[in-house]
Amino acid sequence: MSVIVVGSMAFDAIETPFGKSNKIVGGAATYIAWSASNFTRPVQQISVVGGDFPQEELDLLQARGVQMDGVQIKKDKKSFFWSGRYHMDMNTRDTLETQLNVLGDFEPVVPAGYQGADILMLGNLSPAVQLSVIEQLKERPKLTVLDTMNFWMDTAMPDLEKVLKEVDILLVNDSEARQLSAQYSLVRAAREIMKMGPKFLVIKKGEHGALLFHGDHVFFAPALPLDEVFDPTGAGDTFAGGFVGYLDSTRDFSFDGMKSAIVIGSAIASFCVEKFGTTRLKELTKSDIDERVQQFVELVNFDIALV
Fold it and tell me: Is 101 inside a domain boundary?
């Protein structure tokens, strides 16, 4: 079992109505790796950091079974940095500052030891970078999963279209699904997007759960109502990590298997938002996860007598 994770490892500075963080470790690949490593190992990381990225953070991930052979360290440069402020609804945010730094000219290299991975998880990066990784793999993974965003739809649509033809599953939020498909109805949007290449589509709806589409089949998983949400940053990436990590552990890539994986991803993501950054993910135990998954099961379990 193995999962290749491609994405950013970075610094974030976050403001929410409930608090403010200093410069903390974040990045899509960081959240995905912490999440996926709860279910499968090794996680084979492909990313780039500057000389300012803490060695301690790399060591902690390695101790979790995350391989760092594909992480480039540019000692004379700075890591990617993002700063943002969330609104009261915690679903909308303003970007205050973005510094691409090492990510600006990132050219990923797939180590020889990563060849033959079962799952490729393409975190939110330039479609050209994602395509480069796909082209470097000598053997097609059993499952290729793509996360993208509206920025790439606006600025790199031709490259994104090429990547979409190569993937099995696409992860987007509802506004991104509507933009990509030019359809308001999410059912119609799913049909249009699956014509572009993906066999499965997951539409994330934040606090309103997630939808899974495959052919004419649709599945909905709710989000767990929480007392407090401190920081939504990385929740989508944490979802993705739980989703692919669980799939790799079960090897069940059927629609039913993915239904279970969506519940697992949603459960892990519900932990992520409870504290700033990756703090909560580092604290998780198997019993924590099992208990949270059971809460999801009870949330949607009911008996009804049809008359």
Answer: yes
